[in-house]
Every structure is written in structure tokens, then in C-alpha cells.
Write a structure and sequence with these properties.
two-stranded antiparallel ribbon, about 210 residues, five-stranded mixed beta sheet, elongated, alpha/beta, single chain, Nucleotidyltransferase, domain 5
Length: about 210
């Protein structure tokens, strides 16, 4: 039997995109008919990918999902930070990581600190989206709704902890600059909604016409 690696504390300081990827086991939701799996970049908070399962996924399904995410992004992470769910804390998952030169790192039981980035995303997903919509039961419909929130979260959701920038701006190393407005003339706050969904506002400051 392969020897289990010890818990390794999360590296301190900023890390580059793709260096660390968080993967919790599943998303606890009001609608428990479906399980969600998502993976986040540690530095940019960018959502690299997600999947919807009819029931709690097995380790092989998680590995296939992570493989699809890495293929889509075009870069594999140096680390995967996960909880100690049986999908991750097993010989097959560690062997899969070893073949790809990925270091698995496990959060301590009962501690959310190591997976704080993705846990914070789950909280936002619940508060800003799932508790404000009629959650669909069909898998494809749920996938479309999650994809809609993910795209809004990436491009239009500013983060206080990142200087008001969005995950897309941080991931692409773009600086978030205030809108160019002429303060000598009246200005107005313009609010419109991503894909017409009132739960997903886009706020802009513009000169009044």
C-alpha cells in the first residue's frame, strides 16, 4: 500500500495563476438531487471549470473532470488543494497526480482555511445566485444556470480583497481603472443585468447624456 503523504500547509504569499487549484468534494445545496464540482485558481479566484453530477461523484469521475479542466486551460497546476473526501484521499488519486507531476495537498479535517478560496466562492454562489432563483432539477438546465453565474462572476464581479478587480482582470494581470468621467458635468449610476438576469447586476458610472 502506498504511503500517505503528510498534510502540507498552504504556501504563504501570492502565487501565479494555475499554480494552485482548489477542489472541494461537492456543493451542499438546497436542491440535493445534483452535486457540483468546481475548481478555482488560488490567486485570481478564477473559476477554471465546473461539473454537475447526478450523485456524489467517484474518484475516477473527479479525475476525469480535472483532466478536462487542465486540457481546456492548457496548463496543469503545480498543486491541487482538496479536502479529505474519499475521492481525493485515496491511492488512485495520488497516483494520478504523481503521473502528472502535481502535488496533492490536503486540508486538515474540520478546517476551512486551506480551501478558503473555493469555500468563499461557494458562499457567494449560494447567496448571490442559488437562493435567488428557482433551482432547476434537470442537469442541463442546472449546468446552464451555473455557467451563467460563472461568466458573470469572472468578468463583472469585483472583489474587495483584490482591489476591486474581477477574477478575469487579475488572471490576465489587468489593472482595474476607474471609468473616465467628466466630473464637471452630471454623472449617473447605470445598472443593467447580465443576460437579463436581475440577480446578476453590472454597475457602471457614466456621464449623463
Amino acid at each position: 500500500m502506498a504511503r500517505k503523504p503528510p498534510n502540507i500547509p498552504l504556501p504563504q504569499g501570492l502565487v501565479e495563476p494555475h499554480q494552485v487549484r482548489h477542489s472541494p468534494r461537492h456543493l451542499s445545496r438546497q436542491n440535493r438531487a445534483r452535486r457540483g464540482e468546481r475548481t478555482n485558481g488560488h490567486y485570481s479566484r478564477s473559476v477554471m471549470g465546473f461539473a454537475v453530477f447526478a450523485k456524489e461523484p467517484k474518484s475516477i469521475e473527479i479525475r476525469r473532470f480535472l483532466g478536462r479542466v487542465a486540457a481546456k486551460v492548457g496548463v496543469r497546476p503545480r498543486y491541487i488543494v482538496a479536502d479529505k473526501g474519499r475521492q481525493f484521499d485515496c491511492v488512485d488519486f495520488r497516483a494520478w497526480c504523481r503521473r502528472r507531476e502535481i502535488s496533492p495537498r490536503y486540508a486538515s479535517t474540520g478546517s476551512l482555511r486551506a480551501t478558503a478560496v473555493v469555500e468563499r466562492f461557494i458562499r457567494s454562489l449560494k447567496d448571490e445566485w442559488l437562493r435567488r432563483i428557482h433551482v432547476p432539477f434537470r442537469r442541463e438546465a442546472m449546468r446552464r444556470d451555473l455557467d451563467c453565474y460563472q461568466r458573470w462572476f469572472e468578468s463583472h464581479r469585483p472583489h474587495q480583497g483584490m482591489g476591486g478587480r474581477t477574477p478575469h482582470e487579475v488572471y490576465n494581470d489587468a489593472k482595474s481603472l476607474p471609468p473616465v468621467v467628466d466630473t464637471r458635468s452630471p454623472v449617473e449610476l447605470v445598472v443593467h443585468y447580465y443576460e437579463g438576469r436581475r440577480e446578476l447586476p453590472i454597475v457602471e458610472l457614466k456621464n449623463a447624456s
